[in-house]
Amino acid sequence: FESVCVRVRDASRESLKMEPLADVAMLPGEERVIDKDIIYICPFNAAVKGKVFITNYRLYFKNTDSTPVILDVPLGVISRVEKMGGASSRGENSYGLEITCKDMRNLRFALKQEGHSRRDIFEIIFKYAFPLSHGMQLFAFLSQEKYEENGWNVYEAMEEYRRQGVPNSEWRVTFINKNYELCDTYPTILVVPYKATEEDLKRVATFRSRCRIPVLSWFHKENHAVITRCSQPLVGMSGKRNKDDERYLDLIREANGTTKLTIYDARPNVNAVANKATGGGYEGDDAYQNAELVFLDIHNIHVMRESLKKLKDIVYPGVEESHWLSSLESTHWLEHIKLVLSGAIQVADKVSSGSSVVVHCSDGWDRTAQLTSLAMLMLDSYYRTLRGFQVLLEKEWISFGHKFASRIGHGDKNHADQDRSPIFVQFIDCVWQMTKQFPTAFEFNERLLVVILDHLYSCRFGTFLYNCESARESNNVRVKTVSLWSFVNRDTSLYINPFYTPESSCVLYPVASMRHLELWVTYYIRWNPRIQHQQQSPVEQRYKELLALRDQYLKKLEELQLSDSAPSSTHLTNRSTPNAATPNQHITHLQTPF
Questions:
Q1: Which ranges of 353-445 would DSSP assign to H, the alpha helix?
Q2: 364 appears as a binding residue in the annotation
Q3: Any binding-site annotation on 366?
Q4: How far apart (Å, rounded) are the C-alpha atoms in residues 365 and 396?
Q5: 301 annotated ligand-binding residue
Q6: How far apart are CA 407 and CA 79, in angstroms?
Q7: For the segment 525-584, what is each residue's pLDDT rounded down to a tens digit?
Q8: Which of 280, 413, 443, 549 is least surrounded by CB atoms within 10 angstroms?
Q9: In which residues is substrate bound (predicted)?
Q10: CATH topology for 32-136?
Q11: Angle at 211 between CA 205 and CA 213, to 5 degrees
């Protein structure tokens, strides 16, 4: 096992039948650009001779030796391409290319030094990995993939709000943003307090950063408490006040008779105060007397970016066993996960107890999305289903304007852009932590989370492209690209958790302490062949076998019931003894909670 280098396959290719072209399995719309003999400098073993194929979608390497070594890397995963060494560099394999990836790995290739042998491949990778920087289209717009289900129909805003129980006598739907005139980063359909007029909304927008006014994310059907989301108020250094904004927050509080509205500011207190210098700030006690302000101490996008960078340094290519725990602690990654989860728990607990909340950070599209979506996942079992989780991502992240293009940098060569940050990765990690603590509460499995993150970068689907709904609309994304959910929902069996037990009214409160959180090894360290990760644990495999056996018995029982006449049914019943288990008895045994 250890002699084998790294075998990397794009998760998205599982069970997908594609027409082979030479050694590369091509997607519809994918075209080959260049082939080249090259040496892959494998970080886990010796250098490997082989051939690299570059298409308009991927980099594919296959070795020419007997031991198979395959790299299948979507070009969207590439963050940086650099030349390694020069024409006069000494040493074996010192001349070539170094490729930095967004998914916790780096790739190094060596070429012959004579005749500028790397120039053509460097230029082609640079051009196709960063198409937007070269006036070209992302692959999602070139793809010709076809699926039975149109994944763009997974989320319909009105349908989802009706499922929650709105509109009602306390909350109404407004179309004031139908042309993105109120707020260009919000969706067209918003839910606001019933008593708030359109003029109120316009006046409140002038006092909220980016005009992102407080709007409803989730409604508790029993106690009518709500989760609302927005951006920071524009208080500034002079401590400005806005009566319309103050009254508006009071309308949110009054909707279900909450005594004191809780405002969760995701930022550390010191950061919120510092934001006053740039015109932002927070809700002061004197202005918002019927509200309680709680700071959640979650750090900004820059801190998170540096934290993940440190994590990558300790997990790729090698893991140093002797100082592992102290190295992991020094990245602060799990500490940040803890703070995000802890904040979401506070939000969920407050709403569950009958009090409405407002959640914001600075602009309301990073930490705010993490907190609202995780709290909703804890409160509402629908979001813990395969379909419901897709709806949650579409609603709280995609439609409400998490800046995917800026945070990920799809097709953009500016790898050092200060807007890059793994906010969404961090959220998916938090979801994974919850699935570990509640293994029977989620209908979907770990594979779904990995596939989502792989296609966050791949640019194969349109789902995570652009910064907001208005940008997607102007680029015709729903018509010109395929949704990730079309791909996922074509074979849902791949993403089903066999331990799932539906529980409609249960609120999940994960334990957000360091001793209960763990590093997601099968994602962050998956490229290391010495980390023995299995797609399926033996326990999960055995459980699936038992479920299949149960289904066989159910089918058999159904056949017997259909084909047998009444007398033979009686005969069957008489034949049942404690020593001869009937299909029903087998079924009961298999349904015992695991």
A1: 367-379, 386-392, 404-408, 423-437
A2: yes
A3: yes
A4: 9
A5: yes
A6: 12
A7: 999 887 754 445 677 777 778 878 888 888 888 888 888 755 544 444 444 444 444 434
A8: 549
A9: 300-301, 361-367
A10: PH-domain like (2.30.29)
A11: 65
